[in-house]
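thread: overnight batch results

M.L. [08:02]
morning all. the overnight job finished for the chain we discussed friday. pasting input first so we're all looking at the same thing
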Amino acid sequence: MTKEALVQAFFKIFGEGSEPVTLFSPGRVNLIGEHIDYNGGSVFPCALTMGTWFAGRKRADHKILCYSANFAEEGIVERFLDQLENDPDKGFTNYLLGIIWTFIKKGFPVDCGMEIWLSGNIPYASGLSSSASVEVGMGLLLKTLFDHPVSMQDIALFSQYAENNFNKVNCGIMDQFIIAMGKKDCAVLLDTATLNYTYVPAVLQGIKLVIGCTNKKRGLKDSKYNERRQECETALSELQNGADIRTLCDLSLKDYEELEVLLKDPVLKKRARHVITENERVKQAVKALKEDDITAFGRLMDESHISLRDDYEVTGIELDTLTEEAWKAEGCLGSRMTGAGFGGCNVSLVKEEAVESFIQQVGDAYRKKIGYETSFYTVDIGDGAVLL
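M.L. [08:03]
and the structure it wrote out:
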């Protein structure tokens, strides 16, 4: 949407007056490195050109009036600055209030209410981080409206804090970081233990990123996301009896093979094995991309999915069907689930000339096996959150 279109859409809902701040906050896809951002590993995501558009301005009172074009039937949802609590009946507004609550808690006052308009084209509950897109966008809106001296990296950290402590999802930092810090035509190699990051050019000549959405809805709180995180914490605690480590990803694969005997529960062995091998795959994948070896990169994506399916057990029949059918399609160089799993999306590298037939073939096979449609999006790598 253009700035002009955003302003007019805002005025239509909230009435004319002072012009609102307008901004765009992207979604993200993680090319490789899944479920290791909360285990001290390195991840390799990129921001997308799909995302969430915001318009917002201050009010003279303490009302927070929220409108989402995606939930137009709900109309304007009214919240209050002196009642910053998670309300399960207030849906998307909890992501907005969580950021306000965090800013205040971190010492950056929000002393008046607001009118907030937003609209997004990220498939809801798909695994492309619609919630983090909203959180980072709200952080940029607060920074701008209240002239707070916070960096985009601060906004990423505040967004994770809100997700963990206000919305009670124990996520890592990856989603919020890439949405805040993304760069056009680059993926970001992010060390989640230190937040050191490197932009890696990802101009895929003759190859497109194709997102396949299973259209199976799930929320992170409804999935086994928090359970997997707890399993990793237990495995780490037991492995620390034999190694001076702070995170699972401090271990090399060779180290882990020597220490695996400390884990008595076979489930914990599988969880730790995924984390450590996935961290190794990220390093290998970045090397392959820098060397323009897209075939090797695609192979590592396939191996990532197999590990997430067999060792981490976060895929399910929908994601497995989508990915396994992608592997069969001509022109597909690699495919894997992306995001938390349990539904959501996969990402595939597809030769440009084969995209149309790929979508047709995989879509037909998915519908035949699962019983309903999948949705496909051919996406480009874009910038992080930005004022318009």
